[in-house]
Amino acid sequence: MRRIPSHKELEALQKELQDKHDPDRTRILVCHTGCKAMGADQLLAAFKEGVASAGLQEEVEVVETGCHGCCAGAPVIAIEPQGIVYHSVQPENVAEVIEKTIKNGECVDSLAAESVDDKPVFKREEIPFYRQQQKIVLRNCGRIDPTNWEHYLARDGYSALAKALAGLTPKQVIDEVLQSGLRGRGGAGFPTGRKWQFARNAKGSPKYIICNADEGDPGAFMDRSILEGDPHSVIEGMIIGAFAIGAQKGFIYVRAEYPIAVRHAHKALDQARALGMLGENILGSSFDFEIEVREGAGAFVCGEETALIGSIEGKRGKGKFHALKYTESAELPDKDYPMLLTTGRLLYHFHTGTMTRRVESLEAISPEPFVEVNAEDAKKLGIADGELIQLRSRRGQTQAKALIGSMVDRGILFMPFHFKEAAVNLLTNDALDPVAKIPEFKVCAVAIEKVS
Ligand SMILES: Cc1cc2nc3c(=O)[nH]c(=O)nc-3n(C[C@H](O)[C@H](O)[C@H](O)COP(=O)(O)O)c2cc1C
Ligand code: FES
Q1: Ligand 2 centre from 65 Cα, in Å?
Q2: pLDDT per residue as tens digits for the range 357-403
């Protein structure tokens, strides 16, 4: 590995690696991240041994990859160039896969990911789970060895960085990201270009860029999968972001309990340093940048950005209020729909396990749909605590029991969105939030009345 001094040399090296990569060569891509929990280690060893004992080392490459996307089928493998995907593969299936698929081009029915019309399907583009997907952020996950920088470069890795450093100003980079419509994966879907614009325009120095890879929701697959399966793309994105906002130092904040993500981040950072993608005069430009990994201890709140920053600074992980400015909702109350309904999570939503278990866990805590109503509003409308009320918006209606108190202001209603039968989100609108210009799906104007 050598330092790449310019974008021209990067292009030359990418070309060299692409020429070296024979697309017709048989590759067995074994998911070696999350699938380890279901025995991918033993499976990988069995494939390496099976290929060697069949004398196929020259023709067949066994590649350790990140997540392929359908973790419920663990351990997952894919066979290229045919694009065959097998699920729930065990070491005892290896001999059959080598004999049938690798040597004779036949598929193994018992390892099919899915069936269509009672017939097993094997090709990625035919399997219902995969065929509708167009992977953008995760394009390399499951396709490359995340610990091998050559794989990343061969798929045009670091080209976007080279383009930014060689020919664009920070403002042009921000404009390009704004135009792309790229949004954050942290939950709010905030437009990345706007965030970079705010950071660029913010007074003060030094500036830092932080990659939030905390992934407090286990199995949310928003941060961890990318870092595990394609760490160089995270690093490249951070360098471009740092150039755009004017930062010279970055942090990857990742949970210590995600050891594969931590390991792959460290390895990719070492490689990026050796290639000259980090450090001084990146790709021959005047831009300098470094990244450090900070391991989080696993507090859920430390995924929240202000708590996360505190934690990096060595303080107690505790959220801070931002300077809030009140902005009117995109949909305002009027005489037909005189109140504003907000929907969202309750505090204990954050302590109820994974997304998939969440609804069941929440129903155990809060079994009946309810809507919080201000005591004065309730009095005016003649609604008693626990009474059933009808909520009507421009899009639909639903019913819930009134919970009367002082938690919401007059004119405001609050209803959590985990009650399947009340389906409160059917009431809310998809108008644009006036500040973020992204769909404001949690607020809408409603009318309420007692169900007689
Ligand atoms: C309690 C709480 C936990 C959070 N945990 C995470 C997390 O684990 N990962 C994450 O990316 N964002 C998390 N967020 C959101 C972050 O505060 C922030 O909005 C996000 O990192 C912004 O990044 P984005 O631009 O990629 O969306 C959390 C927020 C809250 C309130
Ligand atoms: S397919 Fe293996 S972790 Fe997702």
Answers
A1: 9
A2: 666 777 777 778 899 999 999 999 999 999 999 999 999 999 999 99
Residue at 98 is within a domain: yes
pLDDT-derived band at 330, boundaries 50, 70, 90:
confident
Q: Look at residue 317 and tell me if it is in a domain.
A: no
Q: Which of 192, 304, 438 to mutate to test the pocket of ligand 1 (most atoms within 8 A of CB)?
A: 304
Q: CATH number for the domain including 273?
A: 3.40.50.11540
Asked, for residue 363, whether it belongs to a domain, the answer is yes
Cα(34) to ligand 2 centroid in Å equals 5
Binding pocket residue ranges, ligand 2, CB within 6 Å: 31, 33-35, 67-68, 70-71, 74, 76
CATH label of the domain that carries residue 415: 2.40.40.20
Question: What's the CA-to-centroid distance between 120 and ligand 2, angstroms?
Answer: 21
Are residue 378 and residue 273 in the same domain, yes or no?
A: no
Residues 46, 165: one domain? no
* pLDDT tens column, 153-188: 999 999 999 999 998 999 999 999 999 999 998 888
Note whether 295 and 390 are same-domain residues: no
239 alpha carbon – ligand 1 mean position (Å): 20
Residue of minimum CA distance from atom 31 in ligand 1: 304
What b/e string do you get for 292-317 counting C-beta neighbours within 10 Å, with b at 16 or more? ebebbeebebbbbbebbbbbbeeeeb
Q: Summarize pLDDT for 222-268 with one digit per residue, the tens.
A: 789 999 999 999 999 999 999 999 999 999 999 999 999 999 999 99
What ligand is nearest to the CA atom of residue 320? 1
| Same domain as 112, residue 261 | no
- Closest-CA residue, ligand 2 atom 3, reads 34
Ligand 1 close to Cβ of residue 212 (< 6 A)? yes
Q: Is 185 in the pocket of ligand 1 (CB under 6 A)?
A: yes
Does residue 7 belong to any structural domain of this protein? no
Same domain? For 91 and 209 the reply is no
Question: Can you give the residue range of the structural domain that contains 69?
Answer: 25-133
Q: Residue 67: nearest ligand to its CA?
A: 2
Ligand 2 atom with least separation from CA of 221: 4
**Structural domains in the chain (count):** 3
